[in-house]
Amino acid sequence: MEKMPKIALPTIFGVVLLIIILAKSAITIGSGKAGVLYRTFDGGVVTDEPALGEGFHLVAPWNKVFIYEVRQQELFEKMQVLSSNGLEIKLDASAWFVPKYEFLGKLHQEKGEQYVERVLMPAIRSAARSVVGRYTPEQLYSSKRDVIQTEIFEETKKIVDNQYVQLNEILVRDVTLPTSIKEAIERKLKQEQESLEYEFRLVTAQKEAEKRIIDAQGKADANRILSASITDKILQDKGIEATIKLSESQNAKVIVIGSGDKGLPIILGNQ
């Protein structure tokens, strides 16, 4: 077997070493993610340059890249907070958020990969306790859910805006009251509804009665006007007109002139 040339061994060794270096240096960042570069011998976390975007990157093998999700994410929180009168309320809420891309290096350096647990969760809980503590259980159960959702969002946003996290929305999914309180509120709401229905029926009946009174008054006025306008002369004229029309009829009849009341004729027919 022939010996390999002396130059071949170093070449092969160099190629293998290059392959190893490239393998360790190659970084592929997936969709919706970004990388924070950590330079081991040159200042640590890179905060003055943009984060590494999606795709293929070559990084020195002694450096590191920390991958972050930069798409919108959801955090689901189940909390127990107190109402204004000290009753325990269970609150289920979701937060939609993203890390601020331009500050990803700062976020990694100051908060770390656990920034959700260190920043966002405490902020939501603090805001929820503050907001819910302003309202009674009845307000939370009925008319104020949209209001507390907005207020929790605004208070949480104030806290996290300077923590390199962008809060997009807070959704209050459920408010659970103690069973006894919930039943008492439902009874009260039912009684109020029944009271409103009763008042509506009373108002309707009153309007109907007023309408009947107005109709009756109108008829009485019409009759009074009609009675006042009818005179003996008018009745006589009407009687004469009726007599003329009957006299022209083919039916057998006897007409006695001047024998009726007020001198009106009496008409005797077949019957």
Plain-language structure description:
The chain is α+β, with helices and mostly antiparallel strands. It has three domains: 17-69, no CATH class; 73-182, 2-Layer Sandwich (Tetrahydropterin Synthase, Chain A), CATH 3.30.479; 232-269, no CATH class. The chain is built from seven helices and ten strands. The protein has helices at 8-25, 104-110, 115-132, 137-141, 145-160, 179-229, 232-247; strands spanning 26-29, 33-39, 44-45, 55-58, 64-69, 73-82, 88-99, 165-176, 253-256, 266-269. The strands form four sheets. A three-stranded antiparallel β-sheet has the order 3-2-5. Strands 6-7-8 form a three-stranded antiparallel β-sheet. Strand 2 (33-39) and strand 3 (44-45) form a beta hairpin. Helix 3 (115-132) crosses helix 5 (145-160). The relative contact order is 0.08. The model has no long low-confidence stretch (mean pLDDT 78).
- Give the biggest sheet: 3 strands, antiparallel
**Number of structural domains:** 3
> CATH homologous superfamily of the largest domain - what is it?
Band 7 domain
User: What's the helix count?
Assistant: 7
Q: What portion of the residues fall into strands of 2 or more residues? A: 15-25%
* Mean pLDDT across all amino acids: 78
Which of globular, elongated, flat, extended, rod-shaped describes the shape? Answer: elongated
**How many DSSP E strands?**
10
Look up the CATH topology of the largest domain. Answer: Tetrahydropterin Synthase, Chain A
Q: What is the spatial order of strands in the main beta sheet?
A: 3-2-5
Report the radius of gyration as a whole number of Å: 47 Å
Helix fraction?
40-55%
Parts with pLDDT < 50 across at least 5 consecutive residues: none
CATH architecture of the largest domain: 2-Layer Sandwich
Termini separation: 155 Å
